[in-house]
């Protein structure tokens, strides 16, 4: 049947395929479907067509490869856009480049060891032992190699470098090197190589056994004491000794020398960070050839240069005969080269120092303290100070060829401060000045003094020195006509015990002040005279000036008492307190010029005033107290009194007292103006030496306890001003403009 169906199907398919051709040839031929029905097919034409599908045939043979087509265009590279999505071209794929973080998982349970020795997680016994069982014993190892013998080999003459030699049981030897030295033990050095070796070992004490020629360098890790032992150490080409660590130099014999023979090199150079103690030996430059401050002679330098910390004790000698370089240099010749900005410290407790242009030069960044010693100079100065120096003792000697015992100079507030403190000296040469300004300095600097001689010398210095008291002094201070000085009491008392001589006499330019605002100028109660006499230009501020002598008729401060008309004295009082028990607090004499800016002025005398003015005076402020008069305005002998009051508080019964004429002397003229101030007392005039017609007394301001209309008739309110009563006072003010 199947065979028939296949034959039938094939026959039908052929018939179907050729049907159109037959139809063209025969107009009324049967269709393939009809033929199939005639041959027994049952079903519709569609079903018949479906039945015509045969089984899949076997694969045919591959055809020949076709020609390669043209290359396609490159595809677009995906990228991440600003919103975090992947983009292809301009198309947002909507796919995030990075996924969002998942939620944190819960903490897992921490394993622990249960009572049975197993690991547990929660309540679950894992069955795993926390410790494993002991393993089986291993096999016996091979026999070890032991030490059969030890010997020590010494490698140098000092017994410092040693080697342990271990002889082993296998016949071999092993060696271990070590240094066997005791701190404080002194080791002798007879040669350059000895010194080099001992320093390399790191020994603490080296004793020279011969004269040596070498450059010694102490590294920053070393702490060494060198005993010269009477020998001479001379340089080869550099500084003889350069110290970067800690160095002590001694001399057990007393004739030891550290010498340098090379131009621009020192016997000892202590570098930044170095610490040196010199307890013995001579430090010199035996071939020093400096001629003067200009000619170095081809071979000149400091004997000692210190950039670190150095202490010199008794037994040290520093010497050179040159006059070009200083003998000892503490600090920097050019402070700008001190990159560390560290200061150099030199303390001299004793010793002998001789020679050099300056015997001791405390240079840029230097800090110097001299406690004792002998210092001799024949060229310029025993001590030249540029920065900070303190003298507490010592003998300072100089020939008449020298300029001064101490030269001092100020350039700036960092490395050239010019601060010199002289507390005490054993003695000094009197043939030359004790103190002078160093050439090239801006000013003479600051000199702190503790005795009369030093103060007298300090105020004679040129260069506008600032002189600071170090303690209380009883003496008379005189400023020369060409002097220009600032005197700082520094909280101390300056007093005089000489009659007919002021505690301070100023003939030049003087500023008296107190950096603590508690210093006092006074005089002993057994002598009479001014406390301050000014014949020059004087400024006073933050000072207490007083005279408590009830029998002294002298004014506390007298300005221009010589009555010079060609060069009248000028006094400016900026602040302070001024008290006189028996006379005027301040007297401005004929032709004098007085300005009061502030301060407290008081007299207990009923015959005198806080301020007595005979010439030109301006009061800008201050408080004026006393038993009677605050200000006395006087004129006589055709001289003019010009008084201007701009402010102040006048608390005496009589605020202003006028006197024109003086007994039989001819009257002068008065010009008096008030622009401000408070006046608690009356305005009065002398009963016989009254105000004159030519006097001009005008009020243009001020507050008064007494009605100004009740003042002496010559005192008038300026045109355009009126007297207005305010509570218990009367105020002079400008008339309101209509």
Automatic annotation (TrEMBL):
Signal peptide boundaries: 1-23
Domain of life assignment: Bacteria
Protein name: Collagen-like protein
Record key words, sorted: Collagen, Signal
Organism, as annotated: Candidatus Pelethenecus faecipullorum
Disordered: annotated span: 53-79
Signal found in the keyword field: yes
Keyword Signal carried by entry: yes
